[in-house]
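Need residues for this backbone.
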């Protein structure tokens, strides 16, 4: 007996043409793949096959693997949210426009990361600011 994965419902598919249609289909397909991965991971990591009296090392290893899988599920859930946001931007016409500078995001970047909301320059700037803030000495009082 085989079970088919249930697809996540998308907003009603607008009549996209050309590049927008390709982007929409790519986003929906990527989202559906991530949903399937989460289902697979959750069905595996939320079940335990260990019984009382088994080796503590085995139980510890299983707990470690379960925590890793749950962390992966969290990351994948965040990616699904980013994809859903990208689909909304595609619907409202702001897809492919940088949220920080309002310039167009390079098509090669969108090809590599279809849910990107920042151009490469703004993304680099944000990452630099994050690194700088982590490396800055802590100020107790100003």
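Answer:
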């Amino acid at each position: 007996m085989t079970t088919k994965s249930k697809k996540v419902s998308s907003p009603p598919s607008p009549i996209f043409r050309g590049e927008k249609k390709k982007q929409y289909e790519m986003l929906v397909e990527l989202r559906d793949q991530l949903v399937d991965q989460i289902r697979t991971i959750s069905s595996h990591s939320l079940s335990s096959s260990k019984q009382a009296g088994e080796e503590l090392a085995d139980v510890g290893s299983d707990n470690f693997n379960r925590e890793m899988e749950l962390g992966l599920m969290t990351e994948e859930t965040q990616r699904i949210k980013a994809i859903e946001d990208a689909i909304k931007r595609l619907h409202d016409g702001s897809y492919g426009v940088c949220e920080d500078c309002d310039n167009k995001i390079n098509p090669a970047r969108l090809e590599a990361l279809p849910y990107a909301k920042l151009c490469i320059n703004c993304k680099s700037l944000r990452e630099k600011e994050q690194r700088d803030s982590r490396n800055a000495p802590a100020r107790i009082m100003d």
